[in-house]
Predict the structure of Engulfment and cell motility protein 3.
Amino acid sequence: MPQQKDIVKIAIQMPGAYPQLIQLDQKKPLSAVIKEVCDGWNLPGPDNYALQYADGVQTYITESNRLDIKNGCILRLTKAPGRCAEDLYKGIQSSDSGVRCDSLKELASVSTDVTFAQEFISRDGHLLLVKIVEDSNESNMIMTHTLTGFMELMDHGIVSWENLSSVFIKKIAGFVNAKPTDASIQQVSLDILESMVLSSHSLFLQVKQEVTMERLIAHLQVTNQQIQTKAMALLMALLQTAGDSDRQDMFAFLNKRNLRQYIYKNIIHSSGSVQDEMAHYLYVLQSVTLNHLEPRMRTPLDCYSQEQRDILHGLRQAAFETESENSLSHERRRSLCAKEFKKLGFSNNSNPGQDLVRTPPGLLALDTMYYFAARYPDAYSRFVLENSSREDKHECPFARSSIQLTLILCEILRIGEPPSETGSDYHPIFFSQDRLMEELFCVCIQLLNKTWKEMRATQEDFDKVMQVVREQITRTLSSKPTSLELFKNKVNALNYSEILKLRQTERLHQEETLAPPVLELKERLKPELLELIRQQRLNRLCQGTMFRKISSRRRQDKLWYCRLSPNHKMLHYGDVEEDMDNPPIETLQDKIPVADIKGLLTGKDCPHMKENKGKQNKEVLDLAFSITYDVEEYSLNFIAPSRTDFCLWTDGLSVLLGREMSSESMRSELEILLSMEIKLRLLDLENVPIPDCAPVVPKPPSNYNFCYDFSQTEQ
């Protein structure tokens, strides 16, 4: 007796008969099941019958797919695929055009089933269809059914596309090229040509020779959306399959006729499923076009290439007005070049080509820099000269920034990645620019300089700035700007302050979505972590900091030191020499009792900022703070050496005064500590042995030859 899991309860239909409800034993041969069904209706010749699904895709039931049958399925008793294939094969050859038309129409329908397709192809039925196309003596309706059936048969991959004759290919191309042709024939013909192109390079060459780009573009300009879609699919197939030379010719054709813009404007009015399909083709067009930059991105700079060396020196000469270099000695010229390459922001100023050896972005970074210098010379000179003249460690290195920005743009635009089969995320701005990569770079390198200044960044903040710039670009592109000007306006409006606000909003939204127990845990952890930050701030004040004095003559050579006593009751301060890194507390002659401190002032509220009102730049204002003591008649004025020191000292002084810390550093550190602590608390440590003591620290290595020597780069 069969087990219950091998039994499936199904219904079987047949036109003109009552349905049979049976329990299908999955271990019984399918031929035996069909015989029992035929016996139930008194049908002779069970070998001439087969079962197929009655609903949805009406697939034949075979031994290989019978296990997919579920309880409650409705099946239908129908002709066996071999008998059906034989009948249709004969019907297609009938002298009666009506019979031929009906047979080909049914063929187009049943050919979607692989079991039937195998039977029909085994009788060389596909060759019969090829002959009908080559003879071209049939009506448009018969030809449409013929081509549809042929396409369905070939889609199963049973027969190779390369076996087709050149006569057949010319006929199919002729249907596409002909102007007064039936739309249904053109749709299927475009489908067939797409499959040919994607199947092999030899067929690509034949199709490219037979179908002109002009005629293909004409199909994109018709009102029939199905033909538009099929023509777009063939165009994408040609672009994807073409070699570099052919692809460049196609790009030149598209750009010359402004067809990218036309395609986009025409396609966005498509509707429904057609629009989804067109979105995929627009994505493919963008991907294939941008990927022509991949060879440059993968190629490192060749230090022995005179052309590439000339471009590097062209960047230098475009930025700096130098005396005639031909009159200089070799050593003098070499020294001058190294100095100017350093001002340009190259890490290896003696051999700047080494900066461009890394791939990606390789030579593409050199291309974008040169394009910016040639296309926007004023903006280029302003960027370089503005930063090369600064001596306060806040200069933004043009070359290093350009190389990293080019890499970021390559990642955002997915240059070098083959197009996905289901991708549809394209950038409308691509269809308004012939040189999207270069123009985006020109906008974004100026954005980078602006963001650098907004963040008051130094060389140590380089990675942080690049993260912000990446976020500015991705957020702006996600809004789908349709032109470069619109992108430029939006990305410049998204300044560093806006990025911080967006991050805070998203963080709050993320917190709102957290489970209540996690929120409760977060609130319980906050006091403990805030106390940890308070202690760190006080310890930092006890270590002390070197401050600079700014006199009315803007001299910055006087230094003084301030530190908190270990018992947190006194602030000790006094003038020091430049070579004293950490003076003992006994050498600091002046002191202020913490109990006498009345207030903490920052920025323009500080007395030493009010005295020089209008003379201080924003950078100094952001680093200034003062404490008032006694009866607020006296003040001790500070200018922090960095924003980090400003945050540490204002937080520490706030703790001494019994106030809440409010700096951005405190908020950032609290967020990091909370996130880390919550993750640790939520770790699943069940059955995980935790040692009682810390693991032994391994011995130092015998040498440090694996370390990179940065000093070599700076020479």
About this structure: The longest strand covers residues 7-13. Residues 516-543 form the longest helix (28 residues).
